[in-house]
Each structure stands twice: as C-alpha cells, then as structure tokens.
Amino acid sequence: MTSAAPLPLRWRTATVIARRPETSQVATLVLDVPGWPGHRAGQHVDLRLTAADGYQAQRSYSIASANDGTAVAITVERVADGEVSPFLLDEVRISDDLELRGPIGAYFVWNPEAGNPLLLIAGGSGVAPLMSILRARAQAPDPPAARLLYSSRDEASIIYRDELDRMATATGGPGILYTLTRERPTVWSGALGRIDRAMLERVGFPPTDEPLAFVCGPTPFVEQVAADLVALGYPGERIRTERFGPTGAVG
C-alpha cells in the first residue's frame, strides 16, 4: 500500500481584515482566506505580489495566529531596502487582496497533544511562529508548562509585548523572560545580554523533564542556542530550529 502524494499548494486570494502595529518597524496583518484548510502552530505561508507590468516578488512569512477558522495572521518586519515588507507595511490597507499559499511546513510545528514542557527561544522577529505556538497553547484544554526566552535589541523592539505580558500573568500562563542586547534601561525586570548557556540553564527545563525546544531567529543565534541546549543535555531530536534570513536580527 502506498500513501497518497500530497496535494500541490495553490495560490489563494486573501483579504486584509485587520492590521495592528507591534513596534515602530513591525506590524501584524490579519488575512481572511476563504477555503483555508487550517494550520498547525509553527507553519508558514508564501505571499506573492504582482506589479502592473507582471513583475512578481514572493516571500515567506510565519503564521503568528492559532488555527482560527479562515483568519490567518502574519507579522511583518521592515527590511531595509526590501521590496516586499515596505509595501506590506506602507501601502496595504484594509480590504486589499493579496495572493497567499499554504500552510507550509511539517517540521517546526507543535502538537498540543505532545504533552512535553515547551521551551521557546526567540531572537527578534523569530518570535512570530512561537507566538502561534503560545496562542495555540492558550486554546489547549490541558496545556503543558511553557517558558519563553525572548531576545531583543531594546525594549521598544519587543513584539507582542502587551499580549505576552497578559499571557505571563494569566493562570497557568507561560513563564516569559525578556533579554535586551543593546539597551540597559534604568528600570527593567528582565535580563540583559545575549542568550548564553548559563541563561538557558537558568530559564529552561531540566532535560530529565523531556522538554521540547523550539528556537527561531537569525542563523548565528539559532546555531549558538541549539549548540548550548545540546551541551546542557537536550537531545538533538527534541530541538527544532527555524532560521530567518536578513530579518530578525537581534544584535
């Protein structure tokens, strides 16, 4: 018996139904996608823009929302000299249509039934797919323990700050620790400096708890964090990584 081949992804028309600023350089677009098949926390979509002369540009964006009917949220960070993110942030308005295909990805996804403690580690805008996981966790009937370690350049660059703070103070909410790499506020309850092995050991779960770790951010950040987790005793198969390109810088 052979398994059926996966159906090819097709482009769909998505309509912008909401947009909200997250920081001065980041905003979330909420899209209504008729016929959306649903998604798993951690997956991503492709967006395609077509100019009047036929020129096309395509980019991938992590889904930031939990599975919620036909609504799909993506969080866009402005890329200096980029051609897609400035358009999405500056030109796109409510009711505009965009081309989208997805959901995509079967590796960097979280299954609420897994039950293992969750250690989420984000660098910059790498927090977007982890936010999808945290939102899906908030909807789960019996969510596992979860902790988020989130590195940003400065306090103003923390994405989803208000919602994350509400999650952290809710009953059964995740533990959240912010760390800043370039700013030293005079009043600050989080950590300072880059994420290192000592910080991971302090914030993470003991390997004997069999946690699942999800790490997302720029490539050097992800590689260093994953190596530190392995050194702390996390099995490699329990560390899932997602690397961003030029976006998501935290240094």
How does this structure look, described?
By secondary structure, the protein is of the alpha/beta class. The chain is built from 5 helices and 12 strands. The chain has helices spanning 85-90, 127-139, 161-169, 197-203, 219-231; strands at residues 12-23, 26-32, 44-50, 56-62, 71-77, 97-104, 118-123, 146-152, 175-180, 191-192, 212-218, 239-244. It has a 6-stranded antiparallel sheet. Strand 11 (212-218), helix 5 (219-231) and strand 12 form a beta-alpha-beta unit. The protein is globular. It starts with 11 loop residues before the first strand and ends in a 7-residue tail after the last strand.
Mean pLDDT: 93
Q: Approximately how much helix is present in the residues?
A: 10-25%
Strand order of the largest sheet: 4-3-6-1-2-5
| Protein structure class | alpha/beta
User: What's the overall geometry?
Assistant: globular
- Please report which band the strand proportion falls in: under 5%, 5-15%, 15-25%, 25-35%, 35-45% or over 45%: 25-35%
- Major sheet size, sense and barrel closure: 6 strands, antiparallel
How widely separated are the two ends?
Answer: 51 Å
Report the C-alpha radius of gyration, rounded: 18 Å
- List SSEs in N-to-C order: EEEEEHEEHEHEEHEHE
Query: Unreliable runs, pLDDT <50, ≥5 residues?
Result: 247-251
Number of E strands:
12
The DSSP helix count reads 5
